[in-house]
Design brief:
Blueprint (H helix, E strand, L loop, with lengths): L1 H14 L16 E6 L2 E6 L5 E5 L2 E8 L8 E9 L4 H6 L1 E4 L2 E4 L13 E6 L4 E8 L9 E10 L2 E12 L8 H9 L2 E2 L15
Antiparallel strand pairs: 1-2, 2-12, 3-4, 4-5, 5-11, 6-7, 8-9, 9-10, 10-11
Amino acid sequence: MRILITACVLALSFATQEPTWASSTAPDQHQRMPHVIGNCQFRAAEIDGGRVSGTADDARGGYTVGYDSDLGFWAVFMSCEKLQPELLAERAGIRKEGNAYALDDRQGQFVREQHAKFVPLDGKNWKGGGTLTDSTTGEPFNRYRRLHFCLVHDSHALCGWSDVVSHLSAPNESMLKNVLRLLNSIEFIDDFKNLNVAPSSIQ
Protein backbone atom coordinates (compact mmCIF):
# COMPACT_ATOMS: atom_id res chain seq x y z
CA MET A 1 0.00 0.00 0.00
CA ARG A 2 2.84 2.37 0.91
CA ILE A 3 4.53 1.67 -2.45
CA LEU A 4 1.29 2.48 -4.30
CA ILE A 5 0.88 5.82 -2.46
CA THR A 6 4.50 6.78 -3.15
CA ALA A 7 4.07 6.03 -6.86
CA CYS A 8 0.94 8.18 -7.02
CA VAL A 9 2.69 11.12 -5.33
CA LEU A 10 5.63 10.90 -7.75
CA ALA A 11 3.30 10.73 -10.74
CA LEU A 12 1.41 13.85 -9.58
CA SER A 13 4.64 15.78 -8.97
CA PHE A 14 5.92 15.06 -12.50
CA ALA A 15 2.54 15.93 -14.03
CA THR A 16 2.56 19.40 -12.45
CA GLN A 17 6.07 20.34 -13.59
CA GLU A 18 6.45 22.85 -16.42
CA PRO A 19 7.74 21.14 -19.59
CA THR A 20 11.48 21.67 -20.09
CA TRP A 21 10.95 22.15 -23.83
CA ALA A 22 8.74 25.20 -23.31
CA SER A 23 11.66 27.57 -23.90
CA SER A 24 15.08 27.04 -25.45
CA THR A 25 16.61 29.63 -23.08
CA ALA A 26 14.87 28.55 -19.84
CA PRO A 27 17.02 26.75 -17.22
CA ASP A 28 17.07 23.09 -18.18
CA GLN A 29 16.09 20.57 -15.52
CA HIS A 30 18.13 17.74 -17.07
CA GLN A 31 21.18 16.50 -15.20
CA ARG A 32 24.33 18.27 -16.37
CA MET A 33 27.19 15.84 -16.88
CA PRO A 34 30.89 16.85 -17.10
CA HIS A 35 32.66 16.45 -20.44
CA VAL A 36 35.94 17.46 -22.01
CA ILE A 37 36.83 18.22 -25.63
CA GLY A 38 40.45 19.30 -25.94
CA ASN A 39 41.00 22.32 -23.68
CA CYS A 40 37.27 22.96 -23.31
CA GLN A 41 35.86 21.44 -20.14
CA PHE A 42 32.15 21.83 -19.52
CA ARG A 43 28.90 20.46 -18.20
CA ALA A 44 25.90 20.01 -20.48
CA ALA A 45 22.36 18.78 -20.05
CA GLU A 46 21.50 15.33 -21.35
CA ILE A 47 18.87 16.27 -23.93
CA ASP A 48 16.85 13.35 -25.37
CA GLY A 49 19.29 10.84 -23.85
CA GLY A 50 22.11 11.73 -26.26
CA ARG A 51 25.69 10.49 -26.26
CA VAL A 52 28.83 12.66 -26.01
CA SER A 53 32.20 12.02 -27.62
CA GLY A 54 35.43 13.82 -26.87
CA THR A 55 38.64 13.56 -24.83
CA ALA A 56 41.33 15.90 -23.52
CA ASP A 57 43.62 14.57 -26.26
CA ASP A 58 41.19 15.28 -29.09
CA ALA A 59 39.98 18.81 -29.87
CA ARG A 60 36.92 17.43 -31.68
CA GLY A 61 33.83 15.74 -30.35
CA GLY A 62 30.08 15.98 -30.40
CA TYR A 63 26.63 15.09 -29.13
CA THR A 64 24.41 12.58 -30.91
CA VAL A 65 20.82 11.54 -30.35
CA GLY A 66 19.74 8.28 -31.96
CA TYR A 67 21.33 6.96 -35.13
CA ASP A 68 21.38 8.44 -38.63
CA SER A 69 18.74 5.96 -39.78
CA ASP A 70 16.32 7.04 -37.02
CA LEU A 71 13.49 9.49 -37.69
CA GLY A 72 14.37 11.61 -34.64
CA PHE A 73 18.14 11.58 -35.20
CA TRP A 74 20.09 14.79 -34.58
CA ALA A 75 23.71 15.58 -33.90
CA VAL A 76 25.92 18.50 -32.91
CA PHE A 77 29.61 18.39 -33.83
CA MET A 78 32.03 20.45 -31.71
CA SER A 79 35.65 21.53 -31.69
CA CYS A 80 37.60 23.41 -29.02
CA GLU A 81 39.75 26.12 -30.55
CA LYS A 82 41.95 28.93 -29.34
CA LEU A 83 40.27 32.26 -29.89
CA GLN A 84 41.77 33.98 -32.96
CA PRO A 85 40.70 37.22 -34.74
CA GLU A 86 38.94 35.49 -37.65
CA LEU A 87 37.79 32.34 -35.87
CA LEU A 88 34.21 33.46 -35.21
CA ALA A 89 33.65 34.57 -38.80
CA GLU A 90 35.16 31.41 -40.26
CA ARG A 91 33.44 28.92 -37.97
CA ALA A 92 30.09 30.56 -37.28
CA GLY A 93 29.66 33.56 -39.57
CA ILE A 94 29.47 35.91 -36.58
CA ARG A 95 31.46 38.79 -35.10
CA LYS A 96 31.65 40.51 -31.73
CA GLU A 97 30.07 43.94 -31.42
CA GLY A 98 30.77 45.41 -28.00
CA ASN A 99 29.49 42.87 -25.48
CA ALA A 100 27.20 41.16 -27.99
CA TYR A 101 27.49 39.19 -31.23
CA ALA A 102 25.96 39.65 -34.66
CA LEU A 103 25.94 38.18 -38.17
CA ASP A 104 29.22 38.77 -40.03
CA ASP A 105 28.81 39.12 -43.78
CA ARG A 106 31.68 41.53 -44.40
CA GLN A 107 33.22 39.13 -46.91
CA GLY A 108 29.94 38.48 -48.70
CA GLN A 109 30.06 34.82 -47.68
CA PHE A 110 26.28 34.40 -47.63
CA VAL A 111 24.06 34.46 -50.70
CA ARG A 112 20.45 35.63 -50.56
CA GLU A 113 19.09 32.14 -51.19
CA GLN A 114 20.70 30.91 -47.95
CA HIS A 115 18.43 33.18 -45.88
CA ALA A 116 21.23 33.62 -43.32
CA LYS A 117 19.89 34.43 -39.87
CA PHE A 118 21.76 35.24 -36.66
CA VAL A 119 20.91 33.16 -33.57
CA PRO A 120 21.87 34.64 -30.16
CA LEU A 121 23.33 32.13 -27.69
CA ASP A 122 23.92 32.82 -24.02
CA GLY A 123 25.11 30.51 -21.25
CA LYS A 124 25.95 30.71 -17.57
CA ASN A 125 29.57 31.78 -18.08
CA TRP A 126 29.92 32.38 -21.82
CA LYS A 127 28.54 34.43 -24.71
CA GLY A 128 28.25 33.53 -28.35
CA GLY A 129 26.04 33.12 -31.33
CA GLY A 130 25.28 31.11 -34.40
CA THR A 131 24.06 31.35 -37.97
CA LEU A 132 21.22 29.47 -39.61
CA THR A 133 21.56 28.91 -43.36
CA ASP A 134 19.50 27.02 -45.93
CA SER A 135 21.08 24.66 -48.43
CA THR A 136 20.76 25.87 -52.02
CA THR A 137 21.60 22.80 -54.10
CA GLY A 138 19.91 19.49 -54.77
CA GLU A 139 16.25 18.68 -55.13
CA PRO A 140 14.05 21.21 -53.25
CA PHE A 141 12.41 18.37 -51.28
CA ASN A 142 15.79 17.32 -49.88
CA ARG A 143 17.09 20.75 -48.89
CA TYR A 144 17.74 21.47 -45.23
CA ARG A 145 18.67 24.13 -42.69
CA ARG A 146 21.96 23.98 -40.78
CA LEU A 147 23.38 25.79 -37.75
CA HIS A 148 26.98 26.91 -37.19
CA PHE A 149 27.94 28.35 -33.79
CA CYS A 150 30.68 29.46 -31.41
CA LEU A 151 30.47 29.65 -27.61
CA VAL A 152 33.20 31.97 -26.32
CA HIS A 153 34.78 31.41 -22.89
CA ASP A 154 37.97 33.25 -21.95
CA SER A 155 40.72 32.39 -24.48
CA HIS A 156 38.88 29.51 -26.18
CA ALA A 157 35.72 28.94 -28.15
CA LEU A 158 33.65 25.80 -28.47
CA CYS A 159 32.58 25.96 -32.10
CA GLY A 160 30.62 23.56 -34.22
CA TRP A 161 27.64 22.82 -36.38
CA SER A 162 24.48 20.78 -36.73
CA ASP A 163 23.93 19.83 -40.35
CA VAL A 164 20.19 19.21 -40.40
CA VAL A 165 18.23 21.12 -37.75
CA SER A 166 15.23 20.94 -40.10
CA HIS A 167 14.23 19.92 -43.61
CA LEU A 168 12.86 22.88 -45.57
CA SER A 169 10.01 20.70 -46.81
CA ALA A 170 8.97 19.86 -43.21
CA PRO A 171 9.71 22.90 -41.00
CA ASN A 172 7.36 21.70 -38.24
CA GLU A 173 9.64 18.72 -37.58
CA SER A 174 12.60 20.95 -36.68
CA MET A 175 15.22 19.77 -34.17
CA LEU A 176 16.49 23.33 -33.69
CA LYS A 177 14.86 23.82 -30.29
CA ASN A 178 16.57 20.70 -28.93
CA VAL A 179 19.94 21.79 -30.31
CA LEU A 180 19.56 25.24 -28.73
CA ARG A 181 18.57 23.70 -25.39
CA LEU A 182 21.76 21.65 -25.45
CA LEU A 183 24.00 24.61 -26.32
CA ASN A 184 22.40 27.01 -23.84
CA SER A 185 22.76 24.40 -21.07
CA ILE A 186 26.56 24.32 -21.39
CA GLU A 187 28.58 25.62 -18.45
CA PHE A 188 32.37 25.79 -18.78
CA ILE A 189 34.46 24.44 -15.91
CA ASP A 190 37.68 26.27 -15.07
CA ASP A 191 38.93 24.08 -12.20
CA PHE A 192 39.00 20.65 -13.79
CA LYS A 193 41.87 19.02 -11.88
CA ASN A 194 39.81 17.04 -9.41
CA LEU A 195 36.81 16.36 -11.63
CA ASN A 196 36.37 12.73 -12.61
CA VAL A 197 35.09 12.51 -16.18
CA ALA A 198 33.89 9.16 -17.41
CA PRO A 199 35.16 8.17 -20.88
CA SER A 200 32.59 9.01 -23.53
CA SER A 201 32.19 7.86 -27.10
CA ILE A 202 29.71 7.79 -29.95
CA GLN A 203 28.95 4.22 -30.85
